[in-house]
Amino acid sequence: MDKDPQLQLRIFDLNCWAIRYLSKLRQERLSLIGDFLCQEEFDLALLQEVWSERDYWELKKKLCAHYPSSHYFKSGVIGSGLCIFSKHQILDTFLFQYSVNGYPYMFQHGDWFGGKSVGLVVLKIQEIIFNIYVTHLHAEYCREKDGYLPHRVVQAWELAQFIRHTSNGADVIMLGGDLNMHPEDVGIRLLRGWTGLKDSFIAAEQVNGNEDGCTLVPANCFTGKKELQCYPQGIRIDYILYKGLSQYDVRCNSHETTTGTAPKKDIPYSDHEAVMATLSIEKKSDKSQKHFTVEPVLVDILNEARMEVRVGLHSAERQRYSCGRMGILALLLLLMQGAMGLNSVFGGGLQQSFPKFSFSLLGLLAVLIFLISAVLCLFHTIEVKVLQGTEEQMRVALQTIQSKLSSG
C-alpha cells in the first residue's frame, strides 16, 4: 500500500424528500437525481427519504450501469427511506432501528411510522474494509419548543454506540445522512465526541457551495420559510462524517453542497441541498497504533445529554400517568354502566334512565377510551424504560471516562 497511490472516494449524500402523493414533483426530481448520479459517477450515494420501494427500484434500474451494487433498508410501517448505491461490491448489510422515534398518534409528523434507523453496508476496496453508515434522525419541528429533543439525543447516543460496537473490524468508517441537528447541538457533539468522527465540512481542505455548508436554505423553493426565519443564511443538518481506524489515515480533500436548482432546470433536486465530499485514504507512515483518546469536554457533553434524557423521562412518566388515569376512569364508567344495566334487568319495576341508543353509545365510547388509554400507557411505559436505560448507559460511560481521566 505504501507504493500504491492513495485511494480517493467521492461520496454523495441527499435527503431526497420523496414521499408518494405528498412531495412536490417527486418523480421529476428523482429522475434528475438519477441523471446527476450517472453523470458524476460517485463511489457512493447515500440517500434518505426514498419512502417508496418502487422509487428505489426505478433508481436502481437507472443507476445499475454506474452503481452495480445497492441496498434498500426496510423498517417501520412505511420503511426507513434509506438506501445506498455503490460502485463497489457490497459485502454485508445490517439495519438497526432506534428504540424511540416520536409518537404514533402524531400523524401529522409521521416519524414513528417511518421506523427511523441506521443502515450499515460493508465494502472492501483495495484490501481496505469500509463500514458505511446511512441514517435519518427524528425531525425538529419547533426549535423553541422541541418536544422530540430527548428522542433525538437517544437516537444520537444509539447511533454512536452502534458505530462503536460494529466498527471493530473496519479500517475506515463513514456516516452520511440527515441528522436533523445543527452543528452545535448536543446530539452532534455527543456523536462526534463519543466516536471520534470528523466533520467533512470542518476538516475539508476546500469548501464550495452554500455559506457555512448549509443544506436547508431560503433560496430553495421547496424549503419551508417559516423554520428559517431566524436563520437567513440557512441551516446545516445534513452531514458526511468519517474516521480512519487501524493503520489508515483519511483526509477530506473537498466538501461541496448544491446551491439551488439543478443544472439547466428550474427546480432543485430536493427540499434539502446535497452534500458531496472527496476523501483520500492512505496507509499511515507511522506504524504505531493511535488509540482514541478521551477528551475532558466529553464529560460535560455527556452530562448535558443525560439532562435532556431526564427531561424526556419526566415527560414520558407524566404521559404514562395521564393515560393510566384516563383508562381507570373509562373502566369505572364501564363498571357503572354494567351495574345500571344489571339493575334494569333484575330490578323489576325500575326504568332505564337513559335511552338504549345513548346508553350503548356511551358504553362504546368508554370501551374505546379504555383501549386507547391502555395502548398509550403501554407505549409510554416502553418509552420510560428506554429513556431510563439510556440514562443508565450514559451514567456508566461517564464513570468510565472520569476514571480514565483521573488515572491518566
From TrEMBL:
<keyword id="KW-0479">Metal-binding</keyword>
<keyword id="KW-0378">Hydrolase</keyword>
<feature type="transmembrane region" description="Helical">
    <location>
        <begin position="328"/>
        <end position="346"/>
    </location>
</feature>
<feature type="domain" description="Endonuclease/exonuclease/phosphatase">
    <location>
        <begin position="40"/>
        <end position="272"/>
    </location>
</feature>
<dbReference type="InterPro" id="IPR038772">
    <property type="entry name" value="Sph/SMPD2-like"/>
</dbReference>
<keyword id="KW-1133">Transmembrane helix</keyword>
<dbReference type="GO" id="GO:0046872">
    <property type="term" value="F:metal ion binding"/>
</dbReference>
<dbReference type="GO" id="GO:0016020">
    <property type="term" value="C:membrane"/>
</dbReference>
<comment type="pathway">
    <text>Sphingolipid metabolism.</text>
</comment>
<dbReference type="GO" id="GO:0006685">
    <property type="term" value="P:sphingomyelin catabolic process"/>
</dbReference>
<protein>
    <recommendedName>
        <fullName>Sphingomyelin phosphodiesterase 2</fullName>
        <ecNumber>3.1.4.12</ecNumber>
    </recommendedName>
</protein>
<dbReference type="InterPro" id="IPR036691">
    <property type="entry name" value="Endo/exonu/phosph_ase_sf"/>
</dbReference>
<keyword id="KW-0443">Lipid metabolism</keyword>
<keyword id="KW-0812">Transmembrane</keyword>
<dbReference type="GO" id="GO:0004767">
    <property type="term" value="F:sphingomyelin phosphodiesterase activity"/>
</dbReference>
<feature type="transmembrane region" description="Helical">
    <location>
        <begin position="358"/>
        <end position="379"/>
    </location>
</feature>
<dbReference type="InterPro" id="IPR005135">
    <property type="entry name" value="Endo/exonuclease/phosphatase"/>
</dbReference>
<keyword id="KW-0746">Sphingolipid metabolism</keyword>
<keyword id="KW-0472">Membrane</keyword>
<keyword id="KW-0460">Magnesium</keyword>
<comment type="similarity">
    <text>Belongs to the neutral sphingomyelinase family.</text>
</comment>
<comment type="pathway">
    <text>Lipid metabolism; sphingolipid metabolism.</text>
</comment>
<dbReference type="Pfam" id="PF03372">
    <property type="entry name" value="Exo_endo_phos"/>
</dbReference>
